[in-house]
Specification:
- There is one protein chain.
- With 244 residues, the protein is mainly α.
- The protein folds into two domains: 103 residues, Winged helix-like DNA-binding domain superfamily/Winged helix DNA-binding domain (Arc Repressor Mutant, subunit A); 124 residues, GntR ligand-binding domain-like (Four Helix Bundle (Hemerythrin (Met), subunit A)).
- 61% of the residues lie in helices and 3% in strands.
- It has eleven helices and two strands.
- A two-stranded antiparallel ribbon has the order 1-2.
- β1 and β2 form a beta hairpin.
- The radius of gyration is 19 Å and the shape is elongated.
- The chain starts with 16 loop residues before the first helix and ends in a 10-residue tail after the last helix.
- The structure holds zinc ion.
- The site of zinc ion (ZN) has 6 residues, from α8 and α10.
Length: 244
């Protein structure tokens, strides 16, 4: 079980250079928009939300750390309004908790939390696979899923870690899209950040092994094999999508 979730992430996982860059005070000629990787056409509150989420998941804001709004707003060179708007979204994802005494604090997840998160994600994934297979058994084609599988194969052959991570994420998103359940998509998104947070030191699965599992999963979905698709997803390596 990941030890990072039991306390400080600092000793376990160094934040990457990009995260550290985000944390540095802005220069006079710089804005959050031109510093950040994400879509700068997004409202500032969305950008701040993404930045804080990256900081928490990347370990730059450590579990138990208080979110000091004034200090953080100064460092990010924004007013406190977009910051205040971002906090409830992080709380809804379980990445921060708010208490009357201490205000917003970065969540400290326990081993029990981690176990529950992996169990729930496996159950949601299996449900998505069953629904997707049921769709394919009747009317739907799975062209997007086929394309996603092809991309994972190309990325795996190229051995590019970032491409592999993005391709795996995309493949699971296509399964979810085929499942066509708004509630399921919402519940999956709600725990995604916390799953990443507790996955920091679970290690990286063998990309080739993951690819074989993805081939079996996609075949079962395309053929409309509902129970098999669900079972394969239940048994799918939980480390898939945790390093992206
Ligand atoms: Zn996977």
């Amino acid at each position: 079980m990941p030890s990072a979730l039991l306390g400080s992430l600092g000793g376990q996982q160094l934040p990457d250079d990009e995260l550290l860059e985000l944390w540095k005070p802005l220069r006079a000629d710089e804005t959050m928009a031109n510093r950040q990787r994400q879509d700068t056409s997004k409202p500032v509150a969305d950008q701040i939300y993404t930045t804080l989420r990256d900081m928490i998941i990347g370990g730059l804001l450590e579990p138990g750390m208080r979110i000091r709004q004034r200090e953080l707003a100064t460092k990010l060179n924004v007013s406190r309004i977009p910051l205040r708007e971002a906090l409830p979204r992080l709380e809804a994802e379980g990445l921060i908790t708010t208490t009357p005494r201490r205000g917003a604090v970065v969540a400290q997840l326990t081993e029990q939390d981690a176990r529950e998160l992996f169990e729930v994600r496996a159950a949601l994934d299996a449900m998505a696979a069953r629904l997707a297979a049921a769709k394919c058994a009747t009317e739907q084609t799975a062209q997007n899923l086929e394309d996603a599988l092809e991309k994972t194969e190309e990325a795996t052959d190229a051995g590019d870690v970032d491409r592999i991570a993005a391709a795996h994420m995309n493949l699971h998103e296509q399964i979810l899209a085929l499942a066509d359940s708004t509630l399921l998509a919402k519940l999956t998104a709600q725990i995604a950040g916390r799953v990443k947070l507790v996955s920091l030191d679970t290690g990286i699965a063998d990309p080739k092994q993951l690819h074989y599992e993805h081939i079996s999963i996609c075949n079962a979905i395309r053929r409309g094999q509902v129970e098999l698709a669900g079972a394969l997803l239940s048994a799918h390596d939980p480390r898939c999508r945790t390093n992206s």
